[in-house]
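Look over both lines before class:
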Amino acid sequence: MSSIPEELSYTKEHEWVAGLDDGLTVTVGITAYAADSLGDVVYVQLPEVGGTIEAGDAVGEVESTKSVSDIYAPVTGEVVEVNQTVVDDPSLVNSDPYGEGWLFRVRIEGTPEDLLTSEEYVTVTSSEA
């Protein structure tokens, strides 16, 4: 499995969040662990720009050759951007999950809760292995 970037926050549902320390807009993606578990990603459905999402709600889907999995919102807020490149080339979720394979950006409302540190996320994935 790929290394887990320490500067990101994570969810138990295998999403990552970048930019919590930078301000009001965060970037969301799925982890390398999730991408590896899914297999070859062939389709990505993302939330609509301008839509409001609620932390914990299913906001999209990732479909692979093995299965279909929901994408859960790790934060509450307004979707301000989606990664059209990953919609056009879903394999980026597998090849670069923490870079070009990001999914969407959210202008957050309130303080995100229930996010994990990289160390806590390692514990979650270790117990699933």
